[in-house]
Each structure stands twice: as C-alpha cells, then as structure tokens.
Amino acid sequence: MPESITKEQAKKFYETMCTIRCFEESVKHDFLNGEIPGFVHLYIGEEAIGTGICAALRDTDLIESTHRGHGHCIAKGADVNRMMAEVFGKKDGLCHGKGGSMHIADFSVGMLGANGVVGGGYNLATGAALANKMILKNDTVSVVFFGDGASNRGTFHEAANVAAAWKLPVIFVNEMNCWASTTPYRTTTAVENISDRAKGYNMPGVIVDGQNVFEVYQAAVEAVARARRGEGPTFIEAKTYRIEGHFVGDPELYRKKEETMEIFHRTDPLKIFPTQLPEGVEFTQEELDQILAGAREKIKKAKEFAVACEYPEESEFLTDVYAD
Amino acid sequence: MRKITFSEATREAMAEEMEKYPECFVMGEDIARQGGIFGQFKGLPAEFPGRVIDTPISETFIVGGGVGAALAGARPVVDMHFADFIGVAMDEVFNQMAKVRYMFGGQARIPLVLRAPDGLAGGGAAQHSQSVESWFIHIPGIKVVAPSNPYDAKMVLKAAIESDDPVLYFENKVLYKETGEVPEKEDEVPYEIGKARVEREGKDVTIVSYSIGMKNARAAADLLAKDGIQAEVIDLITLSPWDKETVINSVKKTHRLCLVSECVKQGGALAEVAAVVAEEALEYLDAPILRYGAPFTPIPFAPTLEKLYRVYPEDLVKGIKGVL
Amino acid sequence: MATELLMPKLGLTMTEGTIDEWKKKEGDPVQKGEIIYAVATDKLTNDVEAECDGVLLKILVQEGETVPCKTLVGWIGQPGEAVPGAAGAAPAAAAPAGEPAKAAEAVAASAPAAVGRPAGAYVPATPYAKKLAREKSFELSAIPATGYKGVVVARDVLGFAPAETAQTAPAAETVKASPLAAKLAGDLGVDLSAVKAAHGRVLAEDILAYLAETREKAEAEPAREEVKPMSGMRKAIARNMLASVQTSPTVTFNLGIDMSEMKRYREQLKAKEIKVSYTDLLVKFVAKALTEFPLLNCSVQDNKIIYKHYVNMGVAVALDNGLVVPNIQDADKKSLTQISAEVKELAKLAREGKLPPEKLQGGTFTITNLGMYGIESFTPIINQPEVAILGVNTMEDKVVVRNGEMVIRPIMNLSLTADHRVVDGSVAAQFLQRVKALMENPALMLA
Fold it and tell me: Which CATH number is correct for A7-313, 1.10.287.110, 3.20.20.70, 3.40.50.970, 1.20.1250.20?
C-alpha cells in the first residue's frame, strides 16, 4: 500500500526541489563568472530523485553521494549557506574549503560525502550498512547514489554481492540519466535497464520515474522498510535525463542542445510537479510561485554568505590529515 | 619472561582490543573458519562470535567496506590475505581510506587497520612474496607500520587499532613463526606510532631497518662487532610518519648510514630516509649512504634465483667496511 | 677591477711556495713596487712586489700556508671594492688559467691522495669532513686523504696538523669579547684567550689590565725562554737538512793537502793582477776532478742513477740569518777568472737577498768552506739531490816529512761527505786523491 501524502509533505518536496534548482542555477552562474574554482557538475532536471529518496530517510541514515552531489546534500538536509561556502572554497564551508563541490559532505545529517571517484561509494555504503547491522546492531540504513556510467564499475559487483549475501540495509539508487560523461549508456551497456542486474544478486530491482518525486518517494519508503526489517538491499533505478553538460562548461559536442531542451521542457520535475500531485493534494500557482521565490531568496542569501566568508587560513593547510 | 610467536602476539593484540572495543571487528578472506592462513586469527571467532567475518574474495569490498564501517562508527580491522593483493583495492586505500578525513574537512574519522602479510616465504614467486610498503608511505593520510619482533607485533597492532587514523600493518610471513619475549599484559609498555627504537648503540655506523630487514641489521652488527666496529641499529617500526629525529641524531653521532630492507631497493621505503638525511644532515655524513634491498625484478620462483633476490648480512658488512 | 695576487713560480722547478710573511695587512694601501709579502721556497725566501697601486683588499692564504704556484693568494684593488667571488670563498679554489681539468680526477683516483693537489682542483671530501675543515679553518686541499676512493674523510681533518699555521681564529671564536676589546687585542697582538674577563666577556679595560700585568711580570723576571717562529729561510734549511740526513747514508773522508803549490800559483796570478781566492781555485780544481769521477757528480732517483755531464758547482754562502748555496753553472768549462768573478757576484747577491731563483737550482756538487773560522775538520751535510759535498778547512803550517826530512808546509784538510748509496769508500778516496794530486801539481790540470 502506497503511503498517503499530506500537503505539508508535498510542499516540503517542492521546496527541496526548488532549493536544489536555485542552488544549481546560482552555482552555474557564478562558475561561469569565474567566482568558483575547479569544476562543478549540476543536478538540474534530476531533483526529484534525491528529494524523493532522502525524504524517506531519517537524519541518522547515511547516504553516499556522487560528483553530481549538490542535490543529495540539500535533500539530506545540509545547511545551504555552508554548502555554498564550500563550493566557493571558503573557511566556513561544510568541509572548511578542503573538499569543494566534488567532495561536499555533511556528517551531521548523515551525508557521508560526494565521491570524486565514479563508483567509489558502493563499498563505503555497504561497509557502513554492515557495521550498523552486524556490529553496532542498529537499524540505520545506507543509501548509495550512482549513475548509469558508475554501474559499470567492478566495485558495484563486489558491494551488491556482499549486501545481498548478508542482507545488509543498503539501497542502491541508480540515477539513470542516459549519459556517462560524454558517452550514451547504450553504447557501453548491454542491458536495457540497469536494474535488470539486480536479479543477478538476488535483490529486488525497481524502476521508477525519476521525474516524479512521489513515485521515487514511494519506492524509497518500501526499500527503507525492507532494509530495516533485515530483508536486505533494494535496487531502485530512477529514469531521468542529464539536462546540463557533464560539467559546467562542457561544450556538449556529443548531442544536440535542442533535443535536450525538448526533453527538459517535457520532464522538468518542477514544471510537471502540479500534474503529479496525489489525490486530495492541491497547490495554487501562487503558492508554488511563493515557494520558488522563497527558495530563490534562500539561495541568494547563501551566495551572499559564501562570498562574505574568508578563505581558509594557511594554518589550516596541514590540519585534518590525521586524527591523532 | 614468557616467549610467544609473532603470530600469537598479533592474535593476543586482536583479542585484547576486541574485548576493549565492542565496535571492533575483523573481516577478510579465510580468517574465521581457517583462522587465517598463518593462524593469526585462531580462536578469535569463538571468543567474539559474529565479529570475525569471512568475506567473499572481494578486496575492494574488504577495504572499501572497512572504510564505510569506520565512517559508520565501527573500529574495523581488515585482512588482505597477502600484501600483494592490496593493489586490487588501491582506489579504496588511496582515494577513500587516506583522503576522506582531509577532503571532508576533518568530519570523518577512520579508525581502520589494514593487515597485510608480506615478504618472501620460499617459493611464493612474483605475486605472493612482495614487500609493498613503499607504495603507501607516499600517501598522506595513512600510517604505515612494520614491526620486527613478537613484542612489537603485539604493541604496534594494539596501537594501530586504537588509532583513529587508518593504519597499514605489514606483518612479515617469515617472522610469524619466530618467538620472542612478550611481557604479561600488565607489564606491557604501549607503543606510540611514529617512534623508532635504537635497539643497539654504536658509534661507527647507523644501520636503519624494519620488519624482516632487522634480521640483516642485527646480524651485520654482530659480524662488525667481531672486528671492533660498533654499529648502532635502529628499528624504524613506523614507516610513515617515520622518526626523523632518532635517525638524524644517530647519524650525527656515527656519521655513516646504512639502510636495509627486503623491498625493492629502487624507490624503497628507506629511500626516503636517505633523502631526508641528505637534505637535513648532509654535513654530518662522512661516507656515502649505503642502501641494501632487492634488485629491480619481480620475485622469481626457483630457489636458486630467489636466493639472489635476498640481501645477506655479509653484504652490509662488506659495504660498511668499504666506507670506514 | 681588483688585481689578483698569485703565488709566483720562481724558477723552473718550483711547484709550491709558502707565504712567509705578509708585509701588509688587509686594508693597507700599497704602491706599485712595494713589497707585499715574502715567499719561502725550499731554497730561499723571496719578496713579492705589488704590480699596481691600491689597497690590499683581501688575504686569502695566511702566513705559513703552502700553496701551489699560481694559486690566488690575495687581491689588490680600490678601497671598498668587492673582492671577486667573495662570500667566504675557499682561498685555494681559484683555478689558475689553463689548469687541466683532469687534475681533479687524478687526485680523486689516487688513494691515499697526496697533498699538493693542483690549485683549483675540486677536493673530494665528505660533507662532514668539509664541515670540520670549515670549523677549523683548514684548507681542504692541504689535507691528505685516506678515505674510500681517495676522499678526504673526517678522521683526515681531525688528525691534520697544518704545518705552521698560527691558529688564531678558533681562539677568537671561543672567547667572548666586546668589539672594542677584540679590535684592541688585534692591534696590540694580545691573545684574547689569555685575558681574564672581569665581567663575563672580555672588555677593553681587561686587555689594558692584562698588558700592565704582563709588563710588570716581564720587568720583575726576565724570560728564561722565548718562542719565536722560524724565518722562512730557517724553515727551508731545517727541512732540507733533515730530509738530507734521512735520505742519504753518508761517510765523511778527511785528507790533508799540501797547499805550497797552490800558494805559489796564486802569487803568480796576483803578480799578473789576477786575484783569486782559494775557494775559486777549489771550484776550478774540484770541477776538473768531478769530470773524471762521474759517480760524485750524479743524483739518485728511486733505483736510478742520474749522471750529469756538466758540473754546476754550489758554493755555500753564510748569511746573518742562515745560508744559501748558489751554484756556478758549467764550472768545469769556465776559466778561473770567470769562476772568480761569478763567485764574488753570487756572494754579493746572496748577502743582499737578491739571488735569482735559478742560481739556486740545479747544483751537482757543493763546496762549503769553514777554513776562515780555523775549523780543522767537519762532516758537512749533502745538499740534496747531490751525492757529495766537500768541506774546506783552515790552512795551517804543519811539520811534515818530505824525503826523510821534517819540513814545514801549509796543509789544508778537505772533508768529503759522500752518499754511500752510490759512492763507495774506495771511489771517494780515489776522488779525494785526485783532487789532492791536482792541487799539489797544478800542471796536471793541463794533462
């Protein structure tokens, strides 16, 4: 039985998605203006997945994110001011300016970090699940996000096998956005659906519409419950599309911009949100506009916070290499 | 004083630490049912049910899962079966284990020990005989230890488990069977990671080594003593971060430095010692730095060839006499 | 541009020289032609003159230090001018132009490496040995190497005693003194380490007190002993004499000569306005004898005998502060008057300290005369690398027997010291007999 959704919950979903969208648009603007060092990978168009999954988790549950991790981090509840400061490489950033966009993390909300190595998160999430279930004896659940590109890493096999064999509380969330950097997934991958592989590990594989936050949420709720019951991992494949280039500044020579925009026009999760509302939940356009405006304001403040922050002291350079 | 083997000493360390830390567990291949291929885990599964875990042959999971378990709050010890196999999980070692603390600005704590049996054991050939410590002293964020006797084996392993940083613990396969004096628990002196020990004082030359290399160092010192040459012998014990002060102070006294280890000489762990002494104490050297290690070749199988791979005390004696 | 001061090469065979004395201090003005320093070689001491006007900017080689010829020993330039390649450069490090680069390798290859490396050659030494040498102000190039591959190692430096270096620098380093006191001590030649400091470090007043005290002491009790450094010539004599007795097993042979004929001969010449001394006559007659006894006119090198087909007759000249032995080249081919004139000229130059170095080199035999002091017999020491030396004693009227009758004749003893490595007793005796025969029958000179 799908869980019934309250308006309050739906509002929260929309708010989170708007916050992610505004965050990414702001980052994109500032990156192109040269204010942000390094490189950034945007989550625009995929907001419903992180939002729906994390909404089903407790604060104490753990997520392993990817290089495209801003959305996961916001959805898990990280402070956007400190997130933005981290993207700018500032002292008051979540990682004190040592990680940046690709290594953003907030342990206080169970966000164990974006991973710069594609496919680097499976074993960490699975190991955490092992520790929680078998050693620390609690019901904490781990989630690992990964793209279709990362699904071809061998690390997936080792983690999925162990998770299934020992029925570990870990949820494999595949953001099937059709692109491994510049390579379309069908040119390198034989299976139609990445989740087809779940069978090979004897774990359930579920396909959901990644543009529908409610559908994602329902799948996550079920997977979390299964994990907490000790029944093991679930593979959720959320179908989506990468609207932005692999990174900001990607000339995208491998695809047509019009095609991408056409897809975005049809599938933008913010835009189609009102059409997906469960029965009995309604929003006026004014209400939605207000939520979006609130998110925009919040991110504007986050940017101001980040800009006002200092860069880390030189004395911070050698700290945190070791704990003792 | 009681005498036990190196292998028993590590087993005692494990038992005492698992007793002390309920969140401490150990996983690896063939450690629970078999007790480890060198018997170093014998008896532990019965003593700590569920906390000695036989894994599938999945090195990336063993290491990556260990990192994840540490992130979740456990105190894992993971076993690599043979040090040669760490390469399989190299990303987990140098991009995850070593870096998560720093790149997340100190939010992560990785109290993880990676145990790695290494060295020539007679016919192990190219993939089961290597000493690979030098790969890891190049990586900031992990600590590298390599004890040379049973007492150190125990105390260094205990210190490694108690450390909140990831520690690579290299244990030599030949040394496992060697016995040595190990005091009762109440008389133990804790080991502080990073400290070397002047095992024998002398004035004519400083011989620095660690792990199995210490056998060469000690034997060479004995031979030299017969000719009235007094060698100072230093057991480095920790290779990273290593005890610069003790070595440099000794060189200031003896003015000569001889380095010996079983690993490949080129780029070997002690090359760093040579470089630092040349950088920081060149004016105290009255002879070229002597280095002894394996030739630049994979390890051969045939006993006649394997013999050529080894360093012998006489090599050191000859070299040292040549620069006196 | 500062001008280099180089260790001169005084004559063909000179390879190194010792700074005997700096006549100027750093900072002193110098004029072209003024004497700046004295160089001692194993033969003599020479003054070196400034080649230009200016100021002695820097002394690189201290008194008592021995360096190869053409080594940079100092700089003359304008006041305040920087010394080229300064910053505490090692003195001997300046490479002489055209020095073959192979020199360094040659040194490196010899084990143990000998001192006297070519100037400017890199001295292979361990870092620790270099540190010690720096601390002790030793010149690495002067230290014999015993280390691996001929490298100078710490024990070489620790066991090294520089020949005649007055080690003032370390004393100055270890004694704490005020700048004024240090300057005063330097000006007055006071050893700082001997001065007692009343307040922790030595002050100017401590030095004045020390001087007053030592003066009082000196007046109260004259010194029973006094230590003075040897002059360069004295050191050369000491070194050469010691080397000679350590090299040659010698025997001295004495023989009396009836000088009646010589006296008559000399009178005859005098009557013709030709004045010659007995020394002149000896040079001429001994040179003749030497042409007949090549073993007395040779030198020894390793296991070889070098026969000289010329006679360069050395004549020892006593000076106030020592002696020198200039030689008359090709004495066997020169006339008596030529010899006489040359002996006079050489003696004069020797006393004036103006002997050209080449006159001191290449001797094949030496005559040394102590007759004027009434000496009857002595055992002269060979002037290396010669193999014999003839000592000339006083001439005295003595009663001798001639044809069964006692008669009075002027008798002069000759004392021949010969190197037994090549000159056996019978050879030495026959040579002396030949000299005697010639001098007692001058007509034989023509035979």
Answer: 3.40.50.970
